[in-house]
Design goal:
By secondary structure, the protein is an alpha/beta fold. Helix content is 36%, strand content 19%. It is globular and about 55 Å long.
């Protein structure tokens, strides 16, 4: 496939993206998870049908994209606006959207809010934005807001830590909260995650506010009610890793609820949260089949 780097101008700066394929082919918009970048898909995209054009974005504050304006917390709904700006930029009637983790959660919410834009939805080891139990309401928001205030002070007075390339690679692997990530998968991410510093080492460029992003507040009851009243109506493929505990345990009730819908297919594969990057050969056949499948066959 042809590979091209682009930057789209937005009110706060630019959105960077890596395009795989011919722009005249049907577009697949691809979004990564939190603290990741477009490199998350470098090992998967070459295994998918070359009859599509895959546009892999760095979300704001990730990879080569601009950060959101300073100080205020990272709020998920801001990224819903980002998705719409992207779709307006390409001026197509409908899009297939592929998202891993946080990128897929935002895509699912977007498909609820703007169903007219989404032709198909592919979600990699993700189901829905995570709920907050009512008993955690105050502490959850206080922690995130206080983190943002403290981070701003730290950024003004401190200096960014720097690492050798080997140290940065190891740090990326060690900080994987949702399971194992291989060296090869980590290297694919690292290319867009660091920049060279004056001391000849490297610093991570990700916006540190992303560590404590704020989702719309809801619990499981509210989640299920909105899914009933505003369901995602397009064909949906969810590929879940069998070793991904957050999806298998915490979101089990939501998964069982979604299985009732004929337009939603849920596939299980062996692997952790980053199975699409660790073992793309396992995930690619399911994605490829879904991409080329006609809606009437679902």
């Amino acid at each position: 496939m042809n590979i091209e780097e682009i930057a789209i101008t937005v009110p706060w700066g630019h959105l960077a993206a890596k395009i795989w394929g011919n722009r005249n082919d049907p577009l697949v918009l691809v979004f990564h998870g939190i603290m990741d970048n477009a490199g998350s898909f470098d090992r998967l995209i070459p295994l998918l049908p070359n009859s599509f054009c895959y546009v892999c974005f760095d979300l704001p504050g990730h990879g080569k994209s601009s950060h959101f304006p300073p100080f205020f917390p990272a709020y998920t709904l801001n990224n819903v606006i980002v998705y719409k700006l992207i779709m307006q930029y390409f001026k197509k009637d409908k899009y297939t959207v592929l998202g891993h983790s946080y990128g897929g959660q935002i895509a699912f919410l977007f498909a609820q809010l703007y169903p007219e834009y989404v032709e198909k939805l592919i979600m990699l080891d993700t189901i829905h934005l995570f709920p907050v139990h009512s008993g955690q309401f105050r502490q959850n928001l206080r922690d995130k807001m206080d983190f943002c205030i403290d981070l701003d002070k730290k950024m003004k007075t401190g200096t960014r830590p720097t690492y050798t390339y080997a140290e940065a690679l190891q740090k990326l692997q060690d900080q994987r909260a949702n399971g194992y990530i291989s060296r090869e998968a980590a290297e694919a991410l690292l290319q867009r995650a660091i920049e060279k510093t004056n001391d000849g080492k490297y610093a991570f460029t990700v916006d540190q506010r992303m560590k404590q992003f704020i989702n719309p507040i809801h619990d499981f009851r509210y989640m299920l009610e909105t899914l009933k009243k505003f369901p995602v109506t397009c064909p949906v493929l969810m590929i879940l890793g069998r070793d991904s505990e957050l999806q298998q345990i915490y979101m089990k009730g939501v998964t069982n609820f979604l299985k009732k819908y004929k337009n939603i297919r849920i596939k299980y594969v062996d692997g952790h949260h980053d199975v699409h990057n660790n073992s793309p050969e396992i995930v690619a056949p399911h994605v490829s089949k879904f991409l080329v499948m006609k809606k009437a066959k679902l």
